[in-house]
Structures are given as C-alpha cells and as structure tokens.
Amino acid sequence: MSDSLNKEQITKLLPHREPMLLIDELINIKKLFSATAIVNVKKESFFVQGHFPGQPVMPGVLIVEAFGQAAAALTAAGIDKSVYENKLVFLMSVEKARFRSPVVPDCKLELNIEAIRSHGRVWKYKGEAFVSGKKMADAQWSATIVDRK
Description:
Shape: globular
CATH class: Alpha Beta
Number of domains: 1
Largest sheet: 7 strands, antiparallel
CATH architecture: Roll
Number of strands: 7
C-alpha cells in the first residue's frame, strides 16, 4: 500500500461524494495505525456562504466529520478489500471534542489521526487538527463497519 492517497483513490474507499467528501488527501499512512488527512478549506467550500456570512468559519461538526472520514479511509485502505466491500462505516460516538480556534478559509487543515484500538467491527480513534502548526481542535471517536443495505 502506498503511504498516501489522493482524492480519486479516497472515493474508491469511501461512499462520500461532493460536497460531503471533505478530505482531499491522506498522507503519512501507517497501515491501520495512523495517517494525516488534508482538508483544503476554501472560500468556495459549501458551508462558507451560510456559516457565517462576512466571517466564515468551518463548523466544528464538519471537523469531526472530516476526522471520521480520515479514519474510515485509513481503515478501508488497510484491511482486505473483501472485508469492506459493500460495507459502510458509521460514527458511533464522539468524546472529548475540543475546538480551540476557528478554522477559516483559505487554509490547509491537517488532521493527524490514530487508531487506538479495534474490537471486531468497532474501532476507536483519536485525532488532532492543525493549521500552520497551530492546534485547532482535537477529539476521540468510535465507529463501526456495517453491511450496506
């Protein structure tokens, strides 16, 4: 496996599509352990127009969503294709989410994520979000792999 994935490769692993596919790249991949996701927060991003006009901020829930997408891509890239084929990854819980500074366009948001543990189809992760080396947010979350209906 490559130690990075571009957006096209990510779309082969995740069911998310524009505008909800938030991660643009997954780099520094350590199989089933950790990676860094890149989110290019742009003035054209779908949430900018209404959150908040004149002083746009990336919603915290979308930072958490991007954490989840990065974790799903890390996991899907690391397990056998037959295991995740026709499956979806659902967020189960979010814990200890902290938003330290607003994420504003135009910036490159870097999400450093790590798989803490897995038990069957349930995985637990932690992550930290940075812009230019400054910590913007962090969280822990759990997700499960389920059959696609």
